[in-house]
Design a protein that fits this description.
Layout: E1 9-11, E2 18-23, E3 32-37, E4 43-46, E5 52-55, E6 63-68, E7 74-79, E8 83-88, E9 94-99, E10 104-109, E11 115-120, E12 124-129, E13 138-141, E14 147-153, E15 158-163, E16 167-172, E17 177-183, E18 188-193, E19 199-204, E20 207-212, E21 218-223, E22 228-233, E23 239-244, E24 248-253, E25 259-264, E26 270-275, E27 281-286, E28 291-295
Amino acid sequence: MANLRQTPLTCSGHTRPVVHLDFSDITESSYFLISACKDGKPMLRQGDTGDWIGTFEGHKGAVWGVALNAEATKAASGAADFTGKVWDAISGEELHSFQHNHIVKSVDFSRDSALLVTGSNEKLIRIFDLNKPEATPDVFSGHTASIRHVQFFRNDTHLISCADDKTLRVWDRSTQQEVQKLSFPHNPNSLEVSKDGTVLTVAYSNKVTFFDAENLNKIREYTIPSPVNSASLHPDKSIFVAAGDDLKVYKYDYQSGNEIESFKGHFGPVHCIKFSPDGELYASGSEDGTLRLWQTTVGKTYGLWKCVEGATINDMSTPKEVQAN
């Protein structure tokens, strides 16, 4: 292998552990990245450079889950202040705040951005209609412990969730009933639906498991050298990345499970990792309070990586406070 050194871009600005992140789709202005942090202040960044755009101010507790809609016009966040909030991602203003009875761990937008789904420590999933925010949400019950992740699924006809009851469940939106369930020996830590909707990537214990999204049959499973908190499959399904308690980010061949490379850059356990929509980089968030952006192909000129021999990229400066327009 060429002796190219991976130089991650370090995105500072958060003051507590970064626990979740999400990318928009590719827009006219490239793509965007949002991060959830226990400091209660989700941040929006330019996805390919990590440049800070703004901070969403309003939560009164740790933010556990975030989402961007495809066009990066709306953001959502779920927090320990028992609210799920929706934001205008252009202006930064709060559009909606939905009260819950416990910590909101996960949020996601429908494809048309008209609906918001939340998963909470109440063990319930709720769907809110953003065009009728006062309306009573649809509620899905069945999990017996706190919900970690929930997403719209199968062209928004279903939902998929995982929880601390060691299960993953699929819900039919039209009947609000559970229609499929997978049980695990340990709690699933992360859940990702592939870009084309065909593969589920689940991390639990020290395993990364891939399932057929239609029938939930296991496609393959690989063991990672450390407890895994998060894993992400490349949009073209050639490779996947995984990270967890040993501070490293790992890259593997999806077909063979062979480790391609691993890098250490964080100073604390890695809580979340995800490929960008174009697959050119992956972002990781850590207990150390930083996000890092890693090149999928080390040595390629992309974003801020101008690959000149011996060049290094300085850490980004701490973001300033958001200026009022």
